[in-house]
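Cont'd.
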Amino acid sequence: MVTPAGAATDTVAAVPANSAGPVKPAPWKDPHAKPYVEIERVTKSFGEFKAVDDVSLKIYKGEIFCLLGASGCGKTTLLRMLGGFETPTSGRILIDGEDMTGVPPYERPVNMMFQSYALFPHMTVEQNVAFGLKQDGVAKGEIKERVATMLDLVKLGEFGKRKPHQLSGGQRQRVALARSLVKRPKLLLLDEPLGALDKKLREHTQFELISIQDKLGVTFVVVTHDQEEAMTLASRIGVMNHGEIVQAGTPAEIYEFPSSKFVADFVGSVNIFEGKLIEDEPEYVRIGSEELGGTIYVSHGISAAPEATVWAAVRPEKVFMSTAPPAEGPDNVVRGAVQDIAYLGDLSIYLVKLPTGKVVRVTQPNTSRHAEAITWEQQVYLSWDSTSPVVVTR
Amino acid sequence: MRRALWSERFGLTGRGWVVLVPYLWLLLFFVVPFVIVLKISFADLALAIPPYTPLLQWDDHNQLAIKLNFNNYAFLFTNELYFKALLNSLKVAFISSIICLLIGYPMAYGIARAKPATRNVLLLLVILPFWTSLLLRVYAWIGLLKANGVINNVLMSLGLVHEPLAMLYTPFAMYVGIVYSYLPFLILPLYANLEKMDWQLLEAAEDLGCRPWQAFYKITLPLSRNGILAGSMLVFIPAVGEFVIPALLGGPNALMIGRILWDEFFSNRAWPVASAVAILLLLLLVPFMMWYQSIQARESAGAR
């Protein structure tokens, strides 16, 4: 007989292949693939403070690599080092095999889209976009043609004669994009590219950005603090904290297989239960958690010292909520009272308070218009699959 | 219900009063004196106190006669001295503005790019000379520049020169005085302009292939245009009519219009001619002032 838990085990083994990515094997999985951008043990200190601390990264051609982190985590400093605006204190950066140490920004095959867009206010849209080409001494006719093509690509063909202050935020963002792409850089750096746009426009622009990147094949490195933005845009995400890359991987890897409490908590929302390993077998582990007031059964082995403190992370959408006790148990099942409900239309968020005082976050899609509503103060059972918890040791 | 004050019946509310005071001030201390000067410029010289003929006069037939005398203006246009003095004043003011700009731009730029804490100290240093009277500061320059003054003494003791350089009472001394006195007027508006500058634009320019000096030439300089013009006007306009500095430092040969005016008024007691000079000078400077105003308006509107 195959238990639901057993069935789930098979899925777990298959997950890495399952993650989103291009059809051909991803270059970062291929040991022979030549990285396009190599960041080798780069550190940047400002006095005592290490803004970027011993970061090594390999970025491949055609990728959209997102550096994700809270403000002050060093992501912008790393981006500025790629652009040549900051010099690494130690370590080096190679772009397309060339060492960029000591190469000033104006000689790098790299362009940057600034967070503030940094459009030249005294120039028209056309002049802004043409600026870099003119600087390189490109022939006049060619400049005109390339600027026109680029403005068409970002759908600003009719706005060439306007000044930046006559444009909306979204239009400015696209001028900045056109200006940084028109020189056909090997690498495009984007600093919070969608930060200044409102939500609707941001979603729309995200997809536009991906399609433009796809068309031109330029490698993108994007800095963002918005995990949703990173998830949508990125081929891979590097999560940064205190100047270090704490985890790098595809959006699905980062979300489903966070390597630490920090990543689990930073990307999406999560319920984290502290506990101790009670049973540690190659096929499964059982964790006793005082915080939860129960045990957590995880259907795969982990590598941790026996008796070690571990954390089990369960995503809110992977928690089931029911008024009747579920068939499984007693593992992975707890009882609690609904403390708060947030109705978001497509889904609802429930905050359920356990007898231990811990509040668990549960999201449920509102699949039916006339569902029997769970209300405040109601006693409910929470449960999850044995494949759902991610166990982290730090 | 409160009864309206008498002043409110004339549309004078509290806000009106606040606006009225400076206008009254201007009326009393600018418009009225201006009208008096204008009046004198159309009068004739007379051996009287004050030394000019009245504009309005009852004649023998009980008729009020207005006598406008245009000879003063005609005199100015026929006598080469005034034209030369005016031209020279414009030249001195122009050259002074250029020198101020050459010295003041790097200073304003340096202050604008300094750390905020340092910035205040540097600004204070620029404003500090205002705490002493202009006259004292110009006199101090006499002490520095004269034959046995500080500069000559230092140069001689270092053995760089064998006899004192003749600096005082030369155009050089006059330019030193004007540039020194008016430099803050150029630095402050230019600093205010540069301080608003988005320095990321320079990074963007470098990112697009500009060397730092190219970025300065293509981005910073055009964007600070309003600051440059406003600051230069603040030097140029008062420097055209400058009297004290040329008189004290420039020696007897400094032919400036302000000097002529003073001589006409005090030495020759030719009040009508002096007034005509003043009116012409004012008319000449009005376009520059209006230009300055429009720059200021543009600057505060934020459009570049």
